[in-house]
Each structure stands twice: as C-alpha cells, then as structure tokens.
Amino acid sequence: MYKTREEIRAAAGHAIICGFDGQTLSAELKEILREVKPLGLILFARNIESPLQVAELNRELKLFDPRARLLCAVDQEGGRVQRVRAPATEWPSMRTLGRAADTALTATMATALGRELSALGFDVDFAPVLDVDTNPKNPVIGDRSFSASAAEVATQGAAFIGALQAAGIAACGKHFPGHGDTDLDSHKALPKVSHELSRLREVEWLPFAAAAKAGVSAIMTAHVVVEALDPDRPATLSVPALAPLRRELQFRGVIVSDDLEMKAVYDHYDVHAMATMGLKAGVDVFLACHAPEVIQELYRGLVTATESQAITHDELWNAAARARAWRDRFQAPAAPVTRVKEVVGCLEHQAIAFEISRRAALQT
User: Which CATH superfamily is domain 5-356 in?
Assistant: First the structure.
C-alpha cells in the first residue's frame, strides 16, 4: 500500500536506534531527535558518569518529546560489557553465570538486573549473548558467552530472557547467525564462519531457537560472513543469512542490526547501501551508535530507497510496525529518579552477584 512522504519518514525513523556523545541533551542531539525521530537511543560508557546522572539523563531524553515515546537502550551484559558501573551492581560475566549452572540463579540475576535498569530509566538491554564459545581464539565473545556447550547456552539464555522480560526490560539475544566460532573482531574486520548447515543448526542456532521459543523480544545480527548461507555478504545485509531466523527458528520479534559503524560492514559498504540491503534482508531496526552524519545518512537512505522503490513501502512499513509494537510493549514513561538509591547497587543485588561468583568457583 502506498504511503505518504510523512508516513515514510516516520517509518524510517522508527527503524533507527542511535548513539550520541556527551552526558547531556546537546543541541546536536536535539536536532537528530527533531529530524530523524528515532525509535530510541543507546547509551554507552561515554554517556554515563553515575547511576543518578544516567537516570536523570534518561528522564530528560524521554521528556524532550513525550509523544515520541523513546526507547532507552544499553549493553548491560555483565563482566567486561556493562556500561553502568559501581556504585551500580557489578554483575559477573555470562561465563561465570554459566559455570554456576543454576537456571534459578540465572533468573534471579536477570530479575535484579532488570530492576536496576528500570530504576535507571532503561527499557532495552542488548543482552544476553547467545553465541557459543567454541573458539578459544575468539577476540570478541569469550567470557561474554555462557558456555562452550550449545545446550547450556540455550538453557541459560532462555532463563535469563524470561526473567529479564518479566522484570519489564526487553531482552535482545545476540549475534545471529553466530559469532562464537570466529577469530576476528567484527568491530575491526569482517569474520567468516565456514561451518556446514548441519553444524549451524546443531550448535550456533540452538540457543537462538530456545530464545525464540522463550519469547525473546529481539535478536541482533552478526556482521559475519556465513559461507554456507551467503559467501559474499555479511549476515546483517544478506537475505539467505537472516531468512532462517524467521523460517526455521520461527522468530517473530524484532531483528536488530549490530552497529553499522563497525568496520566489518562500514569499510565495505556505504550507509545508503547498508540501509537498503539490511532492510531487504530482514532487519527491522538499525543501530548507528556514534557519528551524527551516519545517523542522518541512514535515515535519509531509508527514505530515499523507499521513495525510489528500492525498498517497497510494505517492507519499510512492516519493519516499522514490528519496531513500534516492541516500543509499545516495553517503553516506560519518564519517572522520578527516587528509586535509584534504593534499588541500584543495593545489598540484595550485591549478594546475588557474590553468590554467582561463589557458585562458579565451586565448579572449577
């Protein structure tokens, strides 16, 4: 069905979650919010000074235009990837959680993590990592994974997802079709996976299938070439590489790209091409985490591609509809920051983190 230019622009904005510099709502960020009207914003360590400051920032972001209903997102996995640090709870890595080998304890941590994120004003946590840690030389996954066992990653991941989402925070499993058995970091280069389809189904995809069954709200793509599916394009931009997520794994949620500024894709494709190829491959929401010019190019690329019918109106509209449903389910309005001191880094949560590490140590 034909959409008006205004509808196309709105849908293009809803296909973007973007990052920004600084710890305040700058004039540059305000301009992006006015022009692009993104689905949400993702915060990094550069945006965060303290729990109270980030709660106030998220509140300010949501109040800038309450009608926009911005999603506030973060990577708070535990271990080396957690943007909000002490005095917030310093959560153990997924590997530590996997070694503790107790799904009830995994759920307890995810519930507590969800409480802290909610008190801080976040709606989305880009966690857990569902990659299987099968390659000791992997420079980017490693202890971010629950285990070298696909079955254990599947079990722990499903428990984590269920509890986090029950606490009101959207979970996002990553990185499909699997980043565990690579020896390159996609932030810096383009990795390749050479396994046959049978191996992918038995190992790499098992945790994603379990996550889909557990109702995970979103799954993030990997900027990796999976040769058995598409030897030429990274999965984020490939129809054959992402198709199994819908067709075989029966995932019905939101497909989110990894950051488009990572060298695995940014060094090989221009932003307009990534917008077109990614959306046609099945990406619903793109991450553009740093440069304002990339955010604007992505937005304008989606609009231009739709107006020229390189992307059909229905392709963009269906992606935006899934994104809006995701937002409608998890976005919480701006709230007072009074819960921060009560919840974030509380003794109960510190005790949970300690117990996970103690249990894991007993298993080694």
Answer: Glycoside hydrolase, family 3, N-terminal domain (3.20.20.300)
93: tokens are 């890595």
Residue 179 is among the residues annotated as catalytic for this protein: no
pLDDT at 2: 53
pLDDT digit string, tens, across residues 72-116: 999 999 999 999 999 999 999 999 999 999 999 999 999 999 999
According to DSSP, residue 229 is labeled T
What is the per-residue pLDDT across 194-205, written as a single tens digit (0 to 9) for each? 999 999 999 999
Please name the residue ranges forming H helices in the chain: 5-13, 27-35, 51-64, 94-100, 103-119, 150-166, 197-199, 206-213, 239-247, 263-266, 271-281, 292-307, 313-330, 339-343, 347-363
Q: How far is CA 54 from the centre of its chain?
A: 19
Q: Please write the tens of the pLDDT for every residue from 31-65.
A: 999 999 999 999 999 999 999 999 999 999 999 99
For residue 210, report the phi and psi dihedrals to the nearest 5 degrees: -65, -40
Q: Is the pLDDT of residue 279 over 90?
A: yes
Which residues, other chains included, contact 199 with Cβ-Cβ below 8 Å and sequence gap of 6+?
none
Q: Which of 131, 143, 181, 258 is catalytic?
A: 258
Is 187 noted as a catalytic residue in this protein? yes
Please check the confidence at residue 147 and state whether its pLDDT lies above 60: yes
Inter-axis angle of helices 292-307 and 271-281, to 10 degrees? 60
By the 8 A CB rule, do 219 and 245 touch? Answer: yes
Question: How far is residue 212's CA from residue 296's CA, in Å, rounded to a whole number?
Answer: 32
Catalytic residue among 21, 187, 268, 290: 187
- Distance from C-alpha of 111 to C-alpha of 108, rounded to nearest angstrom: 5
Contact 140, 178 (CB under 8 A): no
Identify the CA nearest to 281 among candidates 328, 326, 325, 234: 234
